[in-house]
Design a protein that fits this description.
single chain; about 210 residues; alpha/beta; Rossmann fold; 9 helices
Length: about 210
């Protein structure tokens, strides 16, 4: 059995990730692939704590946040039953909603971004994705969508200027990583089906490489 592929979908809150993740799963299954859809933060204890920090807007040091995300990520990768590594070895296409690129962009806003990148990229247990797709949507549009569906915005959803800063961080990180990572920035301001067609075209490229 051949090893599966590890795909990461990134973007600001409100960019349409949830819809695209559902379509990607359906598309891959129609392609005859087994799919494991997952997300960060996880449902493990570390992930639950992080989600509480985000949902309740708890004031926590950014280095602490970055370290918590890394701990949660390592659990996510190495868990013996439900870890990313296990599913990849079992031949699944693993599609993850957020990964270390989000740590770089979000926690990098108020900590040493070089430290956040180094602790993730230099850790031998942390897997490098086969593909990262960034759904690029205007932060003002994202904020409007969030305000329509949430009575209480989460920690990073309150301030549109902060969302612009995070988007810029993502783009700077992608530029720094350059050709060492397989990253595609997709203009996701268009309709759902048009965006999905562009996304799945990139996914098919890594499937066809084998």
């Amino acid at each position: 059995m051949s090893r599966g592929k590890f795909i990461v979908i990134e973007g600001l809150d409100g960019c349409g990730k949830s819809t695209q993740l559902r379509l990607i799963k359906e598309g891959l299954e129609q392609y005859g692939k087994r799919v494991y859809l997952t997300a960060e933060p996880t449902s493990y204890e570390t992930g639950k704590y992080i989600r509480r920090i985000l949902s309740e807007s708890l004031i926590k040091d950014m280095y602490l946040q970055a370290a918590l995300f890394l701990a949660d990520r390592l659990e996510h990768i190495t868990h013996p039953e439900f870890g990313i590594e296990k599913y990849l070895n079992d031949g699944y296409m693993v599609v993850c909603d957020r990964y270390y690129y989000s740590s770089f962009a979000y926690q990098g806003t108020a900590s040493d971004i070089d430290w956040v990148m180094r602790t993730n990229l230099e850790c031998e247990r942390v897997l490098k994705p086969d593909l990262c797709i960034f759904l690029d949507v205007n932060p003002d549009t994202c904020k409007s969508r969030i305000d329509e569906v949430r009575d209480k915005p989460e920690l990073y959803e309150k301030d549109v200027e902060k969302m612009h800063q995070i988007r810029n961080n993502f783009l700077r990180v992608f530029d720094r990583l350059g050709d060492s990572h397989n990253i595609y920035i997709i203009d996701a301001n268009a309709g759902v089906e048009e965006v999905y067609a562009k996304v799945f075209e990139k996914i098919k490229m890594i499937i066809q490489k084998g």
